[in-house]
Amino acid sequence: MSVKISRVLKFLAISADELIAAVFLLLVLPEMGINIPLAVSAVILVALILKDLLVAPFVLGGGAEKRPEAGPESLIGRAATVVEDLAPEGLVKLAGELWTAECINGTAKKGESVRVVGVRGAKVLVELPASPEPSRPPRDSSS
Question: What is the DSSP track for 35-66?
Answer without folding.
Answer: PPPHHHHHHHHHHHHHHHHHHHHHHHTTGGGS
